[in-house]
Amino acid sequence: MTRTPNIRRGILATITATILLSFFPPNTVATVEKQALFRFKNRLKDPHNLLRSWKPSDSPCTYHGVTCHPLSGEVTGISLENANLSGSISPAISSLTKLSTLSLPFNLISGGIPPEILKCKNLRVLNLTTNRLSGEIPDFSHLTNLQVLDVSVNFLAGEFQSWIGNLTRLVSLGLGNNNYQQGLLPKSLSNLKKLTWLYLARSNLTGTIPDSIFELNSLETFDIARNLISGEFPVSITRLVNLTKIELYDNRLSGEIPPEIKNLTRLRELDVSLNQLHGALPRELGTLKELRVFHCHQNNFTGNFPPGFGEMRFLSSLSIYRNNFSGNFPANTGRFSPLDTVDISENRFTGPFPRFLCENNKLKFLLALENDFSGEIPGPYAGCKSLLRLRINQNRFTGHVPEGFWSLPLAKMIDLSDNRLTGEISPQIGLSTELSQLILQNNRFSGKIPAEVGKLRNIERIYLSNNSFSGEIPTELGDLKQLSSLHLENNSLTGFIPLGLINCVRLVDLNLATNSLTGEIPNGLSQIGSLNSLDLSGNMLTGEIPVNLVKLKLSFIDLSENQLSGRIPPDLLAVGGTVAFSRNEKLCVDNRDVKASEKHVLSLCNDDQHVHKNRSLDGTLLFLALAIALVVLVTGLFSLRYRVVKIREENKDIKKADGKWKIASFHQMELDAEEICRLEEGHVIGAGSAGKVYRVDLKKGGGTVAVKWLRRGGEEESNETEVSVSEMEILGKIRHRNVLKLYACLVGRGSSYLVFEFMENGNLYQALRRSIKGGLPELDWLKRYTIAVGAAKGIAYLHHDCCPPIIHRDIKSSNILLDGDYESKIADFGVAKVADKGYEWSCVAGTHGYMAPGEFSEVST
What we know:
This protein is 16% helix and 24% strand. GO terms for molecular function: ATP binding; protein serine/threonine kinase activity.
């Protein structure tokens, strides 16, 4: 009896479907949809040929990524995720009237969202996240069946949409990471009662959070990070008891985190970093037993850290650096939880260091620098084989380093500097084969530097200065092909400077000062073409200064306080000044090479003993000069191509800094890739066609730098990438006080970063329009004159002192930067050109209104 109604209903449904399909013959429907699909396909570029199954002879239901209705055979879904597709979305999509799912995330699709998509009334899922879509978002308010709308991480513009409140069936909404105009969070969001996932990060939102949003009781993820939201931390958020993830970082929130946070018992991730929050963290925060991620770095929190964190079972990431926490850090933290990342740096924690952070052998990143921890480094960390980065510098640690600490197999960075540690470096250091940075300066280490350091084939920076190391410098250091900085100053090292150092082909910074080194300066140091800074002062070196050192592009040299003899090469004197060669009794300088006011610092050479030699060599020198000039003229034609090819080949082989970044350094400076690339939208100081420029304050007193970010990948950005490469190639080899200094270039994770010196006073264009107290212009005539002279010197250096000359091609006021003393620096070499005799430019480059003299002339410069 019960089966009869079901059978009848099934027969009735079959008859109904048959009748309906008779009005729309299957062949006709399939033909229309097939044509639409092929128009859709033709708009796309498919480098991996994933759409090869889309054949005219086959049914669309067999196409890769296409789904159909089981009865009618009509197309209901297109899902092509992470397929590396580019091109644009065809308006023909509107012909797929039964389409309920259009999912094209993680591709390279550009252009606008076609308004014809609004004809797809049955659309339930529209997922276009992480593409390159631009233009304004169409008014989707009539697509009332939408349950998932995600157009985040694109380049969409216009005003933030208020019609969004009409889509009352939405469960997931992602509009973040686009280029909207500034606007408020629309109150109409409170209409979306079914919403569980809300992603509005980096949407240029201002004002406060409307209290009505906290009526979305189904909400599980609430992400409004990286906006301009102000006001106090919203207490009302604690009413949303289903929340599992709260992302409020990088806004302008103030106030304190309320004790009511304990109501969010399902919370797994909480990030309130980069705000202006203050006060003590409530103890109740430590009762959130489901918490996996807690980040509150760069706020103004004070007091003790909640002890409940030591009892958590699931905590994996804890980042609370740059606050004012004090007292003992909870001793049990990590004992029961699988910690992966811990950053408690730049606080005022005291007492012993917690023992259990690596208890579960998951810890990869441990950063506790700039605190006041004391006592010995706990022994359990010697077995923390998972560690990648360890920075516990600038504390008050004492005693020996645990033996196994030296042989961490995956560690890329060990920084124990600025403590009171004693003992020796174990030969086991040779087992840390992934190590790229070994930083131990300013401690009380002693003994010999083990030869096993030469096994660290990935090492880039070794800082052992200001300790009590003795013995000879290991010759094995010459095996370190990736080494860029070697600091051994202020120790008790003896013996010769190892000749093998000339094999360190990437060495930028060599400091062996204040030791007891003897012998001569190796002539082979001139073969290290990357060397930029050389400090051998305060030793017992003898012999003459190798003349070939002038071949290096040094920005710093100090050979003072040795026992050197002979003439000082004029080019080196110009770099270091007389002080860099002082207290070498047998060194002398030509009268014409030193200022009158500095002649008392160095002895003058006796020219008489050279007169006869000079006369007898006059004819030979003249002949050689003419011969050399001829050779230079011939080879000069090939120098540009050789230099560019060489630089690019070197860059291809640049060492990976931590498996994720590649770094090329051009100046003496300690850089941390993760720190450089942790950019904050609130610190944007400029933007141009090639990317944004951020101010970055380096930890550990590293000062401030400017970082230009360039997102890479795809055809549309190839030109911008070439601009970045051009800028790196040119600036990396320039040394002049009136040309902006490029410290390093970082490449990885789909982005490029150029690290420059920071200019406190911005650019000339801005400064000319600023006023000081009383309405007077910021730049008086003396400052303007100084700026103009400095800029002229920089341009003259580029045009006349660089070989071959460099033509900037875009000198304008916004490309002249000003430091704290209003010293001008030429910047933005994205369109610069290295002059090549015989090459004529076919077009004028740079900004309209300015033409480089070398381009105006008919003769190549």
